[in-house]
Amino acid sequence: MKPKKRQVLFVVVFILLIIGFLEITLGLLAFVSPRVNVLLTSPHTPPFVGDNRLERRPNPAYPGHDRQGFRNLAVPAKADTIALGDSQTYGTGVNPADAWPRQLESLTGKVVYSMAFGGYGPTHSLVLWDEAVALSPTTVIEAFYIGNDLFDSFNHVYNNEQLSELKTSDPRLQASVREAERSAPIAQRASLMFHISTQPVADAKEATTVTRDSFPLRTLLSEHSRVYSLFMKAYERARMTKQPNTPQEKWEKAKAFANANPASCEVFSDEQFKTIFTSAYRLVALDLDDPRIAEGLQISLKAIQRMHELAALKGIRFFVALIPTKEAVFRQLWQNPSASFRRSTENEERVWRLTKEFLERNGIEYLDALPALREQLMAGVQPYQVSHDGHPNEHGHAAIAKLVAAHLASPKASQVEQDAPPNVRMSKSGHE
Length: 432
Description:
The protein folds into two domains: about 1-45 and about 215-255, no CATH class; about 70-200 and about 280-420, Rossmann fold, CATH 3.40.50.1110. The chain is built from 18 helices and nine strands. The chain has helices spanning about 5-30, 35-40, 85-90, 100-110, 120-125, 130-135, 150-160, 170-185, 185-200, 215-225, 225-240, 245-260, 280-285, 290-315, 325-330, 340-360, 370-380, 395-410, and strands spanning about 50, 55-60, 80-85, 110-115, 140-145, 265-270, 275, 315-325, 365-370. The protein has a five-stranded parallel beta sheet, with helices on both faces. Strands 1-2 form a two-stranded antiparallel sheet. Strands 6-7 form a two-stranded antiparallel ribbon. The longest helix is centred in the first third of the chain and has 30 residues, at about 5-30. The protein starts with a helix and ends in a 24-residue tail after the last helix.
């Protein structure tokens, strides 16, 4: 072998040995340190895995998830409080420590375990019930977000064929649902509006679609090489430093997105607050004139009632936290709203009215987060992002956590209805 080729071979072997040593070292560090393991997790790790009953379950291998897949530091032997819900409770868009269940734990000093995940509704909570009570909680909270929970519950029962006993027994409504699904499946419509409302901002010339299969070698390396994962994390962090950081930069980016998607986004701005609404998307999942959404509401309420009954059998305190949409929170500030915004918020009011009537009729404890979130606006604090994201920011989560903490410190609402604060059960003041 020629000296030059021998030298090149030596360098290649040396580099491979170094990489191998680093792989072994990082593997050992990841094994003994959960934080290092999170840092080295493949960027291609999906946030969820398939599940027969839930359709999808949070992935235990995803950064920030515990061994059961939920967004907690660890799975406790016993939890004082269980929080069930969707992405509004999971904490999409905020750091794990800022999600309201984690803030609630800090406020109360008691163990709060979150079993929330994006796309879940009350029916998913019912499926998770046995798993929740296995942690011997004294309190279980169902965070009911009607921004899409009615659709999620309908889809779970009708399209994923779970909990069929919750379906309506009314043959006319059944026929209306079948006809509506035959003509225009609501899952397709909701999915289309969701993707229109959440697609990333990109110049048309630069827009590309990247999937796990777009770069098979990259995917292979990221799933099996911790050195590559570490390199990609460093690259991503460097790239993120170039993203808009100042409030004005973030607002300009949000407006650019809204202007590029006028059919689904609306720009709101006054002297104090700025944000983007997605009323058209909200309306798809709130329109009670659609028999599937009306059925989704009834399914959700039946699931909540069943959880209430199961809790009573075990002596567990159960209550519902009513989580409003961003549009409802800002409604009083928009003096000249669009037609779709008005329709969306009007339907939301109808849903909350029917929900509260049902809960009160069946003796189910609840509290309404709308006043607490609006109080933040009155105090000059914005509880949502300026972007089209409909999830609360850390301030919104803090408001919910404080509200729930105060409620947990009180006796059951049924015992204190005479002195109940305005956002606790039996009050109509939360929604006009």
